Amino acid sequence: MPVRVQHVVTKNLLAQFSNSDGFVNRIFKVTGHSGLRPISREGYVPDFITSRSEDAEARWNEIEDKMDDVYSHLENRTLFDYPSEVELCKRFMALHLIRSKRIHLTLPALLQQINDQSIARTAATPNISPDQRILVNTIVNAELRRQILGGEWLRQILFYWLEFIGNDFQSRNLEIGIATEGSFVIGDNPMVLFDNDRRVVDAGINDADVCFMPFGPKHVVSLKSTSRDPNSYRQINLNGVNNINDLSISSAFTRYYSMPIVE
Question: What's the predicted TM-score (pTM) here?
Answer without folding.
Answer: 0.90
